[in-house]
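Hey, quick one: can you model this chain's 3D structure?
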Amino acid sequence: MDQNAPMDFYCMTCNARFYKPLFDVTRAIERVHFFADGRWPEVDVTHAEGIGVYCSASCRALGLPALMAAERVPIPEHPPDIGPVEICARCSGPVDMTAFHLTYSQCEIVYGETCGQASNLEYLAVVCDRCSGGRTLTASSVADNATADLPR
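Sure thing. Here's the predicted structure for all 152 residues.
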């Protein structure tokens, strides 16, 4: 296998083989840090995995309802933002975006020679801790343990 060959993908809607751009759907555990001094908020992602791979925005739009149904997460009419409080796609309860929570997002990724560059990131849905079945509990303990020994 040629190490310099481009990475190939297969579209989950039309099964076409393609290289770039990649139209992605990602499931992640993250939290948002807001700053009183006016700096832009920062998003802390502890785990992310691509769960949808599509060759075009139109194939992603066609495949998205089935993908999210398989995740048992409805796509809200009004997509969430970064908070500080958003609405859970499952129960319509509040999601504290400053605490670890489950998110679903979509973006376009263009791969260069060494890495991919994401653009047009949009949140699709956020899920509260109760509805995520505790998936975020392990993320917070991992993050807390990772930073426990850092100087303060």
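One thing worth noting: The two ends are 47 Å apart (CA to CA).
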